[in-house]
Amino acid sequence: MAILYKGAGPGSHWWTYDPRLTGLFTQPIALPSAASAVRHITAFSHPSPYLSLSASFAVARQYALDGPKGPATQSAPGYVWQVDTAIGGDVVALTDPVALIAAAVGPAAGLPRLPTHHDGEQSLILGVASPSLHLAELNRIPHRPGTMAVPAGPMVTPEFQALVFALRDAEVLADRIPAACVVHRHDVF
Amino acid sequence: MNALPLNITLDHGWRVAQADIREGLSPLVLVTLEHAGAKQHVRLDVDKRMVVDHPPTAISGAALDELVEQVSKKRREVLLASSA
Questions:
Q1: Domains (range + CATH), chain A
Q2: Contact A68 B24 (CB under 8 A)
Q3: Model confidence, pTM
Q4: Which of A50, A82, A157, B65 could lock onto A184 through a cystine, CB 3.0 to 4.6 A?
């Protein structure tokens, strides 16, 4: 059982169409996999085998505040759809992207460096979580051992970026949510 | 929310009139495009460096890339100034 949220800004798809009638769904053109989850989270979410939800109402609200019809207002609010996967009797397959991506990386032993690792400073995570706001952290040349010193920025892989984005957004992936599981619409502005 | 007036010229008479920038780590920025008095909103994801909603077809991909770059830079300036 999980309570999850989906933000829909004014004029966006799930603002225009009521998922209490249709359910939430995506139109996949690729099979679900760790690679497609990384692509969904870091690059583009349409087309994708996944639909993004959040365990955090606050995060979903942020995504509901703006849309192609403009900012959410009292007269035209954004919507946060509340999903309860325990309702309806259908099996709802949820994917924790952090677990999926971490499991696909494999065991640490024998690898020189995991795709989920970085070689930067601890503050690098700020740059990954918000690259547009903390750009300098992505360009800061980290300390490296003398013989390995190269004047290059830190190594950030798509897998590492996906993990940070997923944690930032308390993200949960699904391919479909039945209509019966969409239990409430919160209006936000 | 910071409503930031802009005047960025795009292709075929389109221009960016405004960017609505919200506090926090949300990567979405709402921009208002104008053309001959008509307005259209599109959301940019400045972390993924992409346009979320369908932009006017007259605007080229190169112009959209430049738009994302400029809006991302403006957003950074605004948010850093407000946190200083």
A1: 3-103+170-188 (3.20.170.30)
A2: no
A3: 0.91
A4: A82
